[in-house]
Amino acid sequence: MDLLTAPLHSLQQQAREVLRGAEDERAFQRSNESELVRQVTAIGALSRLVDALLIDAVGEVVRRSEQPDRDERMTTHLGCRDVSELVQILTRVSPQTASRLQRAAQVVRPTVSDMTGELLDAALPCLREAMTDGVLGLDGILAICEPLQSTAPRVPTDAHREAAGIVVAEARGEGPDGAPPACASLLKIHAQTWALALDQDGAEPSERAAIRRRSFTIGVATPSGVAVRGILLPDVAAQLQTIFDAQISPKVAFVDTHEADGSPIAPLDDRSRAQKQHDALASALDVAASSGLLPTLGGHAPTLVVSVDADDVAGGTGYAYAQGCDQPLTIAAAHHIACHGAIQRVTNRDGRIVAISTAERVFNRHQRRAIALRDGGCVIPGCGVPAAWCEIHHVLEHANDGPTHTDNGVLLCWFHHRFLDRIGWRIRMNCGVPQVRAPGWFDPSMRWRTVTTSPTRLAGAAAVRRT
Known about the structure:
- Residues 366-418 form the HNH nuclease domain.
- This is HNH nuclease domain-containing protein.
- It comes from Microbacterium lemovicicum.
- By secondary structure, this protein is mainly alpha-helical.
- It has three domains: 22-198, no CATH class; 232-258 and 269-343, no CATH class; 365-456, no CATH class.
- The chain is built from 19 helices and eleven strands.
- The strands form five sheets. It has a three-stranded antiparallel beta sheet, with no helix packed on it. It has a two-stranded antiparallel ribbon with strand order 1-2.
- Strand 3 and strand 4 (264-265) form a beta hairpin.
- Helix 12 (234-248) crosses helix 14 (273-286).
- Residues 251-260 and 262-268 have low confidence and may be disordered.
């Protein structure tokens, strides 16, 4: 007995009617901004519910294709080599999306008892509940579960479930600070923070594996060039990414040129990003023996910045973080980098930057690095622009006697800096720590909230919550 096909066909028909009506009436174009916000929000909620249906359906396909006997598998009955191929054919998605649906299904689908046939809890029940409530879609589920699962089996299942519950509360808008529901990118940051806080082994297992697999191979020269391949250690990759950012930052890549009569010339740089990164590496190799010759980043030579808690350094445990790299570093790696670099104390226990000030209009390189370590990136929640591409905003304008001091500077991307006065976000400093008040459409309570995406500060906050 088919219980779902008729209701699903009815939903499809309703969706077609809504879409055609919106097109015929030009509903989106005729909406004001408040109406359009409500419409996009409602469509997003529907999309998450559709994700839930599809994840559950794919989960059942996976279950029916797990039999040891290949001839008994659903995929074999339908002439497909695996679940991914079948899902691609049925849903018209890419191989990447088919894989993501399967990974999500493994976490949120209830298992079936081999003995009784009854349904048992999913691996992370709180994620399933949030999915069926329409709170989490595919992106949100993977943003939470993948960082937490990366620590298995070193972290107990109960600890995973507890951490997932805390992050799900952020997704529902019920987190400790009562912030509005978090998007997938912010949920991933929270989940990564908890994964690191729960993993007592620190970064050591990952580093040992990376050390074993590290490689860089130059292939045989061909008429088309020379192929290279390899796996870099996280700190090496972070340093290379820093150099790439300096070379291909929009402020470096585009230069205003003009014809003799003053008319502008369109930039002739039509290189792909991969080509630009190749050329950046060539420049770095050419000047590696020199200092101060690479293009500047934030007004100064590219510098790999590693942040670490002083107590972790003293105890030899915990993590260090390199800007430009999502993976944490070991304390040993931080010691090695510090051996040939400068060490600077940046923040105290409350997150306030230790006074590093200047009387100049432009923040100097020491201030910029300190602010980057405190803020992590653009302070507007959900923006995601990294520190290397951000500008520093005087919270109290310099023209109004605002000091060029770390207590008065925050990271903003070009867009949020340029249009801050127009888009409804407000920023203030509270004892040297940035706080943001969102516009009413994003946060109806319009409360001031402390913001950061700094992994060091987030890890500290997670440690405090655990005690």
